[in-house]
């Protein structure tokens, strides 16, 4: 499994994500929408949301199980598994989004807002440049775990089905896990399941983040200090981990009150340092994400070599 993980990560870093029209996560999203159209009509919204969770996982697992059973060629099986992992993570795709925001800030703040809307659910219309920079870095920080580290974590432990289960759950949370009138009950099971799945990897990402922060910015110790102080201060049980690490590593203040769907959400400040929120900090966040992903690959390779010292490492 380590060979599959490493190859899939390298493919993603080099080539980025598939087009949205054919991306498996987008297909999962369409399946969720189909089930939601029916199940959201249940009088008991929580039950409907629970059935959405079960139905989506069951359908995808059956399809993957049958594919893995039907394919007899070991080469095709290997390729399919690499494809599943590759389509379940995002390094280059996420960082390309952040880079577009960085570039747009030099030309047109409204274009930067439009690009930001693609990666956040918060209201962007009234944001100034610093708000955009902060929101971009926070999105990068949260997505390191959600879009990369957590699926890899479950792949290492549970293999292909671990990654699939995580990615479906995370997609469900992204689509129905909102605390608004429509989804507060319907999306509760998906949201809580996502919180549970992310609890351990959100805290383990410190293993790769601190060494990289020290190498890039000489701020590993500050990242650790800010992580200890602020990791549990945000409303989300896991978001504070990544955001506090990035705040400490980049020596900036993140968090603070934010508008979602026209409603002000009070969030505490994560005071990672006194540096100004300049555009350069977006680039710093991109490098922290990228090199932490590369360091994760190196750790997986080391794990492979130490775990199976008598087996040649081949991709």
From TrEMBL:
Which pathway does the database say it acts in?
Cofactor biosynthesis; adenosylcobalamin biosynthesis
Q: Give Gene Ontology CC terms.
A: plasma membrane
Q: What GO MF terms are annotated? A: ABC-type vitamin B12 transporter activity; ligase activity; threonine-phosphate decarboxylase activity
Kindly list the places in or outside the cell where this protein is found, as annotated in its UniProt entry.
Cell membrane
**What would be one Pfam family of this protein?**
CobD_Cbib
Q: Where are the transmembrane segments?
A: 46-68, 75-95, 148-169, 237-261, 282-307
Q: HAMAP family, per this entry?
A: CobD_CbiB
Q: Which family does it belong to?
A: Belongs to the CobD/CbiB family.
Q: What protein name applies here?
A: Cobalamin biosynthesis protein CobD
């Amino acid at each position: 499994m380590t060979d599959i993980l490493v190859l899939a990560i390298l493919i993603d870093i080099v080539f980025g994500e598939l087009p949205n029209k054919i991306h498996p996560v987008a297909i999962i999203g369409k399946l969720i929408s189909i089930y939601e159209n029916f199940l959201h009509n249940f009088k008991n919204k929580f039950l409907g949301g629970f059935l959405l969770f079960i139905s989506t996982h069951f359908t995808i697992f059956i399809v993957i199980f049958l594919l893995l059973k039907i394919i007899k060629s070991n080469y095709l099986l290997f390729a399919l598994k690499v494809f599943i992992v590759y389509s379940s993570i995002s390094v280059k795709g996420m960082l390309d989004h952040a880079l577009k925001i960085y570039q747009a800030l030099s030309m047109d703040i409204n274009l930067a807002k439009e690009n930001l809307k693609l990666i956040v659910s918060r209201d962007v219309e009234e944001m100034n440049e610093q708000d955009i920079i902060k929101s971009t870095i926070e999105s990068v920080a949260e997505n390191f775990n959600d879009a990369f580290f957590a699926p890899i974590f479950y792949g290492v432990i549970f293999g292909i089905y671990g990654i699939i289960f995580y990615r479906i759950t995370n997609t469900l949370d992204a689509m129905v896990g909102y605390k608004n009138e429509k989804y507060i009950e319907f999306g509760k099971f998906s949201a809580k399941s996502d919180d549970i799945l992310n609890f351990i990897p959100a805290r383990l990402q410190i293993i790769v983040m601190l060494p990289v922060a020290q190498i890039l910015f000489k701020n590993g110790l500050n990242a650790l200090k800010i992580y200890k102080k602020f990791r549990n201060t945000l409303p989300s049980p896991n978001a504070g981990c990544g955001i506090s690490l990035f705040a400490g590593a980049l020596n900036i203040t993140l968090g603070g009150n934010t508008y979602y769907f026209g409603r002000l959400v009070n969030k505490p400040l994560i005071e990672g340092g006194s540096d100004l929120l300049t555009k350069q900090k977006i680039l710093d966040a991109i490098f922290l994400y990228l090199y932490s992903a590369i360091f994760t690959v190196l750790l997986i390779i080391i794990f492979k070599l130490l775990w199976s010292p008598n087996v040649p490492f081949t991709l």
